[in-house]
Amino acid sequence: MRLRGGATAPALAVPPGRQGPGPLPAPLVDSLQLTVARRAAGVLPGDRPGPGVGTGTELAQLRPYVPGDDVRALDPFAYARTGVPHVREYVPERALTTWIVLDTSPSMAFGTADRLKSDVAEGVTLVLSRLALRHGGRVALATCGAAVERFVPPRGGRGALAGVRRVLDEGVGVDGTVPPPAPGHPSPMARTLSRLRKLTSNPGLIVVVSDLRGPRDWRPPLAALGARHAVLVVEVRDPREETLPAVGPLALVDPETGERIEVDTSSRRLRERFAEAARADRDAVAEELRRARAQHVVLSTAGDWLRVLGRRLR
Q: Do residues 114 and 92 make contact, with C-beta atoms less than 8 angstroms apart?
């Protein structure tokens, strides 16, 4: 997209009404657990030892060296005591990898309550990233829905959270910079989930943070991911997406398509029809998620989203 003078419009920007996710008290965040992930990873590191032997911190056995063993596993103290080369084998630890798919489409910049949808999504991403890094876990982040999409590969430690923050600081897609998918082509969400399926191997946790507006072609790739991983979908809503206020003539613009319509909200029948259509649409989304066997959490831009999320993660 070009501006006057030949300048290029940014594909990502911090929304003007950004409020931020609000307080993220460390004691409250630390009290949460990614219990949904246990269905995929079995146990998290430190819960129970994994089967067999491998890389870890707990000694499984000390045995005589045989040709082909890794010489780095030789135990000099056992050799000094016995005169026979011995190698150390450890109980393997399972490090959980959490893959977060973040919707950065222009519709996420909408909000009429305490904050924007993108603010809630930012907070959810930060909280789940912090939880994912426990017990030596790793976190990866993939964005979708904007003209520019970001990918942070799986990382552990402090550097992982810094990479996630850098992506969040870029904001969301700018209105009018995201063309609709061509007929027969997957939506950005479906495309990202399909790509994630090829990148993931060991069972882990897939988290989708989105308002789930637009095409629902994401169910097949989401269901495919659910066959191997635990899947958690965090849907972010705003109250004005579910009901219309009685404020008379109102112009509504779709931030992603640019479509504009004018309605008279003083009509009670119109407001009722809007609420019914919005309710039916969200019910259809919930049904698609149920068929994909995904855990579903609904958060709002109004109220304390962190406590609602916490009730589902404890």
A: no
